[in-house]
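Aim 2, interim progress. The first record below pairs a target sequence with its structure tokens.
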Amino acid sequence: MAPYTITYFAVRGRCGSTRIALSDLGQEWKETVLSFDEWMKGDLKAKCVFGQLPKLEDGDLALFQSNAILRHLGRKHGAYGKDDKEAAQIDMMVDGVEDLRLKYIRLIYQEYDTGKEAYLKDLPDHLSKFEAVLAQNKSGFLVGDKVSIADYTLLDVMLNHQVLCSHSLDKFPSLKSFVDKMSARPKLKAYLESDAYKKLPINGNGKQ
């Protein structure tokens, strides 16, 4: 029996980084897939702590909020740094990725037809921050010398941005190398090349 159960929609969305993490960490999971019509009925939504998905079940533990889910998996499977200092740096990086993710989500769901040009013009300023961190940390990871949840969430957002703009990483060699190396990790490579990943749209409104 799979140790984890994910409840979410048939999109990558907010669950992309969780699936990436589980794959790379060698964990099995099953999914309860909801249609948007089912969700709008409100029965499940009323049972969600913050009225949102994804939901991760780990035995009798039910977690909501995608970054809380990531942190739980990181602590449990050794992807949260070697000490408190690294854990704090990982938290900082996760929050930095979240800032960019929120801007991306706003573009996709609110400003896609009117704001894409401005978004892409502003994007290098955001990417340069991660480029600098990766260039300084020669390990190829955001923090320390081992993969962490910060790497999983950054990879998820960068893969989305490569679809949004195929040349978005061309001027950021460390960031591009990071995406290439992470995507080539054997378990991750297998997942990213699977139908389970490829068949899922990135976002719920069909824009990407």
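The second target in this work package is listed in the same format:
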Amino acid sequence: MIFTYRYCRMLEEGSFRNRTADFVLMFVFGAVCMICFAFFVNLLFLGQAFTIMLVYVWSRRNPFVRMNFFGLLNFQAPYLPWILLAFSVLLGNAVYVDLMGIAVGHIYYFLEDVFPNQRGGFKILKTPSLMRTLFDPLPDDYQRLPEEQPGGFQWGNQNNRPANENNAEHNQEQNDNAENR
């Protein structure tokens, strides 16, 4: 759970910043692929494979981050899924669970980051506009209606003061400056 939380958070704050719909599409793509692969390997619980998929995508998008494994092994981020696989094998877990997560993560990474940047490549995974409408934040040029704004008074906001108050204050400052000379 800690790995899932940590790498989801780092992905969401990093490469998926202000792109929540794309983040949800990655989840849906990973879930569908893993469910399809799970039929062939007779796997019921996909949580560990999903976590490894998230780790793989994060590690490929952050290739220059230095990692430390239990204070013993220093390496760069792209090796993290493979080190977790080796550690999982040392603990006696099944290899195919982590390999399935790495495979699905690599498929997503290839379709999203590698293939569109190749000569003649194009974006295969396109986020539907319905998902963008549901999940992405509103554009910056959106003007909130007065009834949507909390409060009702803008205490201390100098720009919203009536013109005669600003003029009176300005005149008072000029008079004070003239007296001080």
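The first strand starts at residue 66 and ends at 69. This observation will shape the mutagenesis plan for the next reporting period.
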